[in-house]
Structures are given as C-alpha cells and as structure tokens.
Design brief:
Structural class: mainly alpha
Distance between the termini: 86 Å
Strand order of the largest sheet: 2-3-4-1-5
Radius of gyration: 30 Å
Shape: globular
Largest sheet: 5 strands, parallel
Number of helices: 30
Strand content: 5-15%
Number of strands: 8
Helix content: 55-70%
Length: 654
C-alpha cells in the first residue's frame, strides 16, 4: 500500500524537479491514475480483510476459552480442568469451616490413570477426530484433559463455550497448524449449523498440520443420535442425518462407568486423598468418577425431598423435587439448551400433583429454588445455574431416570406441549424427532410445525434448515393420515430443493421418495412405482446399492409391487432388502424389523400362512422388546398377526 501511494505521487515528483518532457509527464499522470485506482481497490480489500479479522477475533474472545490477554491458550496454559467441563469433586473429609484457601481451590482430586489412557494418547498423537463415549460422570472429560496435557502441551486449545461460538472455532482450527478443538458434551454442537461432516473435513483435511477434534459424549446421547427412525418414511433420518454422519467420522473410545480391578488398584495408591478413599469404599456399586462427582448423593437428596413437609424441625422440599423431575423429563424429551426457570415453574406442578400435591405441603417457590440450586458438599447443585434465568440439570440424574425407564414410559404430552410453546427451533426439532421415534406423531407435528414456523420467519422459506423442518412436518402429517396435506407439503419441499440444491442432491431425493410414498398412500400406484424406480436408480448410482437410503427406496418399491399384485417380485425384493439390512444395520434395527414385517405381509398374500405367522410373531416380539408394547409399529404388528390368525381361524391364539 505504501509503495502504491509513492508511485501515485510520481507527477508531483516530476514537477518538483522541473521535468517537462511530455511523454514522461503523460506516462506519470496515466500511471498515477491507474495506480490510484488499484490502490483504492486494494485499500478497500485490506479494510474488509481487517474488519473480518477483527470480527473473528471478537467472536473467539467472547465465545471461547481465552487467557486474560484475550488470546487463545496453549494446552499447557490451561490449568483448571473445571473450565473444560470436568466435574468438581467434594473434599468430604474436611469441614468447610476448616478448609484452607489452597484446599478449597483443589476442587478435583489427583488423577487415577484409566485403562483407556494408552489408546487415547496414541490416538491424540496421530491426530483426527477422537470421541470418548460413556455414562455421565464416567470420567470422560478428566481422562481427555489429562491425555491432552500429557501428549499435546504446546498445541493451541480452541474450546468454544457454546454452540454460537462453534463456527468461529472451526474457522480458527482450520487455519491453525497445531491445535486441539475441544468439544465437551458433543450433543450441544451437533445438528443444523453445528458440527457436520463438512466442518470436520475442513479442520482435518490436508497435510503439514497436526489438528485434533477431542470430544466427549454421554452414552445415552449417542444412542439417541445414532438410533434410526422407527419407520421407512425417512422422518427422523432427516433430523438425525447430519449428527449421525458427524459421529461416523470419529474414532470412538468407550469409557466404563465402574472402575476395573486394575483401575481400582491404581486408585489405592492415592488413598491419601480422602475423596478417593471415600469413593473406593463404594467402588463395587459406583464408578469412582461418578461417586466423586456426588452423583449418588444428588440422586438420594432428590428422592428424599419428595417426603411430605410435615416436620418444621426437619423440612423437606417436594416442590424442589418437582422442579428437578420437570428438568430431567424435559432433557429426556430432547431439549439440550439450558432450561429457563420460567419453563420449569410452568411444568413442575404436573409432577407435584402426581406425588400428592397439597398433601405434601410443598414449600414456597423461592425456598424450592434456593434449595435446588444450592451446591451439594460444596460442589455440584441438583440444578446448576447457568445465569440468573437458566439452569442445567445434573446429567447423572437424567441418565439414571433414562436407564430405569421401560419402553413406553415417555415424558407427559402436556409437559412437551408447554415446552414447545416457547423454545428454540433446534430444541423443537430434537423434541419432535424424539416424539416421532416414540410413535407420538401428534407431538411430532406440533414440534416440527413450531420449528418450521420459526425458521421460515428468521431464515426464509427456502433455507435448507427451513425445508428440513417442512419436510419433517409433511412426514408427520402422513403418519397422522392427513394424506392430501402431506402430499402438498412434500411437493412444495421437493420443488424448493430442486431449485436450491439440485435434482440429485441426497435431500432432494429424500423429498422425491416421500412424494412417491404419498402417491402410494393415495392409491396412485403406477405413478408411485415410476417415481420409486427413478429415485432408486439415482440413489444406487450416487450412494451405492447398500446405503440405508437406497435400501429405503428398494423397500418402498417392493411394497408398491405388492400393492399392484406382483407378489413374487415383491417377495424377492423384500428378502433382498431384509438380508442387506441385517448386514448393514443389525437384526433388531427398526428398519430391519420393517422389512421383516413387509415380508410377513407378502407371505400372507401368497397364501403361505404358517410362514407368515412365524414372521409376524418374531416381529411382534422384537418390536415389543425394542419399541415398547404401545408403539404404533408394535400395534401394527399385533393387528397384522390378529388378521392372519383370523384367516387361519385361530383368533383366540393371540
């Protein structure tokens, strides 16, 4: 820029030295004019680049873990593991009044080496996307922190504090030669505008660098994110597709909640720490990290709080217990963002009434909030405050409730409807997808309609996220039997996706497949067959013959062939799809069970009733076990078996 500025002053320099040659002066004037234009262009580019750098730096400083100077730290400079999501542990052997400042500051005990450490550190040394999966408080974050500090002390640490900071963090990671992108509780960073396969490739592709994405994920969240939808209609697949694709890029390491014998032996060398000694006394029931993080104590306090509040000398807190119950259920429903106090106050009465309502003599609401947000044993609260208006439920409680919930024990519909009335589009999408997977199609419609309306307003009608929400809404309408509405919505989404994404984009093909399903539902079978064949050809060419989406198209085509009376063709196709799904997805995946069910139907139409009965019974048993006895697909299996037994004149055998 300085050089261009000097060149632009050439005419003035010539005049100063009284150079009068008209060719020299003309060249200087012309050159100066050109250079002035070039300088202006480059100056404008420089300003834009500087502005972008400033905006990026501001996003990093406000959204990521930084040093007091505002710079990103190296791994070695990150000395407080609590800032990276490691749970604090209580100093149970020392009364708070007797704690020194140094003792109080030591909120994590000495690290007990885990069996997974060697594999984890080897993976970090290689680079790539490393994901630790395990139960809440299994020690995932602590193991990751210790491995990172040992293996990569000089790497830059990029730790976004929330989902909004992720785009800036990804850009920073992609432009840094040696760095760790830290994503504790990965579920908060997945989904629309979150961590995708493309974003991962942007960070990790290329040569001459050593970049690592290091993430943790609770096992229950992994099951929710990787579990397929419970229908062949591709709903749920759309909601989970990007998250599942992202998870497939990771090298997964599992951490066990309960310490192994070798880990317990290593822990005994640190029994001088009273926290570890206390945890070892319960090691046959709880994992050390779990116990140290006060999970069992929190669970016990919650359960005890339900007792009737009848003794002024020993008060209980049933209203606080109801607030926790509401928080755990809302989390189980798919809501991942911090929960507003207003929302919990609006939903907790349901749980209080279930337990006895006024007979429990519940405490005033301010007292309940004070008790439920109070740190236990100087560490974690039952509901951890995020700010003045929002809290997060301790994951251990949510996981425990989920583990002890039988299939069919779902979050009450009234609670979900209250949440959906005022939540972010991504949370509405997650809740709708969870409800859909549970066969609660009316709730799924409400959730996807809410997400679609919000995204249509904020992002525009043809944004990819808006179209995904509209697509999901159309699928819910189809399952509710509102076929004309479903067809109209699917066609609108298909037209928009062709314009925005192109005719053979995977999402465009999903929409075209769903239009084909709508045509079949409406009895327009020849049109449906033609559309299914076109989609199947495209998916086989683009995705491969055994991609789950290709198998969906092949299964849908087989069903249309059966409706057209071409039963032998239908049977052959259903058997081929069933074999492929057992290979690709496993024998009890919902899509595999759908193939089993479809084969049973065709066998019945072919008059092979005994074979059909055996298939129907196998599918019914599996769906009851996997989905629960009242899931719509379980009920379909039971109804199909009943119809078959009636044909066999054995209707009393059901």
């Amino acid at each position: 820029m300085a050089g261009l500025a000097l060149l632009a002053t050439a005419p003035a320099v010539l005049a100063t030295f009284e150079v009068t040659n008209r060719w020299a002066v003309g060249a200087a004037v012309g050159g100066a004019a050109v250079l002035a234009v070039v300088a202006g262009v480059w100056q404008e580019r420089y300003k834009r680049a500087a502005q972008q750098r400033d905006e990026h730096a501001l996003k990093i400083e406000s959204g990521c873990l930084v040093l007091p100077s505002g710079r990103l730290p190296t791994v070695a400079q990150t000395t407080d593991p609590l800032r990276l999501g490691v749970h604090p542990a209580p100093i149970s052997a020392v009364k708070p009044a007797q704690q020194s400042a140094a003792a109080a500051a030591e909120r994590v005990p000495v690290y007990v080496p885990r069996d997974i450490d060697a594999d984890l550190r080897e993976r970090l040394a290689r680079g790539g996307f490393v994901l630790l999966v395990g139960d809440s408080t299994a020690g995932k974050s602590r193991a990751a922190y210790e491995a990172m500090r040992t293996t990569l002390p000089n790497h830059l640490l990029i730790a976004p504090q929330n989902r909004d900071a992720l785009p800036a963090a990804l850009a920073q990671a992609a432009s840094t030669r040696r760095c760790v992108l830290w994503l504790s509780d990965l579920e908060h960073y997945l989904g629309a505008d979150g961590l995708t396969r493309t974003g991962i490739a942007r960070v990790l592709s290329g040569n001459g660098h050593h970049r690592i994405i290091l993430a943790t994920l609770r096992a229950t969240e992994q099951a929710r994110l990787t579990g397929g939808p419970t229908t062949q209609d591709e709903a749920g697949r759309t909601a989970h597709h990007e998250a599942r694709e992202a998870l497939e890029q990771a090298h997964l390491l599992r951490m066990q909640r309960v310490f192994s014998a070798a880990e317990q032996q290593r822990a005994r060398t640190s029994e001088w720490d009273p926290r570890i000694a206390d945890a070892l006394a319960h090691a046959d029931v709880y994992g050390l990290a779990e116990y140290l993080a006060a999970g069992p104590e929190l669970l016990r306090d919650w359960h005890d709080a339900w007792s009737p509040n009848t003794d002024p000398a020993a008060p209980t807190y049933p209203r606080a217990a109801a607030l926790i119950a509401a928080a755990t259920d809302i989390r189980r429903a798919g809501h991942t963002a911090p929960l507003s106090r207003h929302l919990l106050e609006a939903t907790h009465e349901h749980y209080l009434t279930q337990r006895g309502g006024r007979r429990l003599q519940p405490e005033p609401l301010p007292t309940a909030w004070e008790w439920v947000t109070k740190p236990r044993r100087a560490t974690t609260a039952l509901l951890q405050p995020e700010d003045d208006d929002h809290v997060q439920v301790f994951d251990y409680l949510t996981d425990t409730v989920q583990r002890h919930s039988a299939p069919g024990e779902h979050v009450p519909a009234g609670v979900i409807q209250t949440v959906l009335a005022d939540c972010a589009p991504q949370d509405a999408t997650n809740i709708a997808a969870t409800a859909y997977a549970q066969g609660r199609y009316q709730l799924a419609e409400i959730g996807w309609r809410a997400a679609y309306g919000a995204r249509d307003t904020t992002l525009g009608p043809e944004h990819t996220d808006t179209l995904t929400s509209r697509h999901n809404l159309a699928v819910a309408l189809r399952d509710l039997g509102r076929l004309e509405e479903a067809e109209a919505e699917h066609r609108a989404v298909l037209d928009a996706r062709i314009r925005v994404l192109g005719p053979e984009h995977p999402k465009t093909l999903i929409s075209r497949s769903n239009v084909s399903v709508a045509l079949r539902d409406l009895g327009r079978l020849e049109e449906a067959e033609a559309e299914h064949r076109a989609v199947l050809d495209a998916r086989t060419r683009i995705l491969g013959p055994e991609h789950p989406h290709t198998l969906i198209s092949r299964s849908s085509l087989a069903s249309v062939l059966g409706d057209l009376g071409r039963l032998e063709e239908a049977e052959a196709e259903h058997r081929a799809v069933l074999d492929a799904r057992i290979r690709v997805l496993g024998p009890e995946h919902p899509h595999t069970l759908t193939s089993h069910h479809n084969l049973s139907i065709v066998l019945g139409h072919l008059g092979r009733l005994e074979e059909a009965e055996a298939e129907h019974r196998a599918v019914l048993d599996a769906r009851t076990r996997v989905l629960g006895p009242e899931h719509p697909h379980t009920l379909i299996s039971r109804s199909s078996l009943a119809s078959l037994l009636a044909d066999l004149e054995r209707s009393n055998d059901l």
